[in-house]
Amino acid sequence: MQKFFEKELIEELHEIQDTYGYISEEDIVRISKNRDIPKAHLYGVISFYSMFYLQPTGKYIIRICDSVSCRINQSKELIEILHKKLSVKNGETTKDKKFTLEVVECLGHCGEGPVMTINGKIYNYLNSQKALEIINNLK
Prior knowledge:
four-stranded mixed sheet
């Protein structure tokens, strides 16, 4: 029974996330009351899954892999360039709410690094110039 309950909860959280881009405190209070579960449990679920956000995110969520295999292929340089280009640190969103930048441990494309995703679309075999071109072409 617990697994079914968790599945329904995660589906509800996904629906909120997909609609608003993040899960607000008001959403957490409402779900807590409707499902009769502690807010602490909801925060635990939300913080466990990296695809849930408690703050508004940018239109484009950029994830850059910094695993060992990507680091060997210069992901650190790519990360530094994007920090400068976007004027944000890891986990931050640009002031215009266009970009959220996240440095992650692995994107599952270890032989294709460095790798980044933008809203789930994979970009591999990157260098700084190619990454900046991709970012500059986003509307």
